[in-house]
Amino acid sequence: MSDKIRGKVVVITGGARGIGLATATALQARGAKIAIGDIDETTVKESGTARDFELYGKLDVTDATSFENFLDEVERTVGPIDVLINNAGIMPTGRLIDEPDQITRRILDINVYGVILGSKLGLARMLPRKSGHIINIASLAGESHVPGLATYNASKHAVLGFTDTLREEYRGSGVHISSVLPTLTNTELGSGVSTPKLLRPAEPEQIADGIVGLIASPKSKIRVTAVAGAIIRFVGLLPESVGDSIGRALGSSHTFLDDVDAERRKAYEERARSL
Fold first, then answer.
1. Is 202 helix (H, G, I), strand (E, B) or coil?
2. Residue 152 a catalytic site member
3. Which of 56, 152, 170, 268 is catalytic?
């Protein structure tokens, strides 16, 4: 696997922490050249410096100029981009009626527009070379519906539909396009949330290992963990009333609402909602 990754130039958005940082670390260990960008300029510099990545810096995925300038700098200083991982995303929780309009827009701007923009800019560089790989981080929430995550769910459904469409639109171009569907993961994004029964949270390193395998052997999508993915797909095949009943029995109706530990989640919510 390392032979297929060594020397590749990999760009990861939202790379300062969580799944993004775990993925960068795993790929670096296999010989990839890593560039991480993040809106949190302080943390991305700390993470990049500590691990001696080839490039790290501030990146606002909702700003076309910021994104294009970052990719230009990668290609100028590190080399042509082989893999672009659109990982940046936020997950504020709560009932839709309590969600301010600016937070709704922020979720969609980062989780959807940021992925679309990144894919567009990545394709513009990869298509002329007839090689490359764009990986969009979606979620198993994109194949389900979970109370307390209405806008987040919508954003991940959008990422899946967008990525599947791109995959067909550019079939045969030499550029691989994939989506990754993680279950709830033990990162700051999932802080204060207890997973529904049977769905144990994943560690970011598990998601990272899945992405490493995806780069070494490209396919349309992967679900991590496999068990969580199988459960979600099985429930999705059932009649709606039955599937919803199973979800309620597993506790999904309360996981992101009444069961949230607000104190443990406070720091993340404040950061995700900061405008």
1. strand
2. yes
3. 152
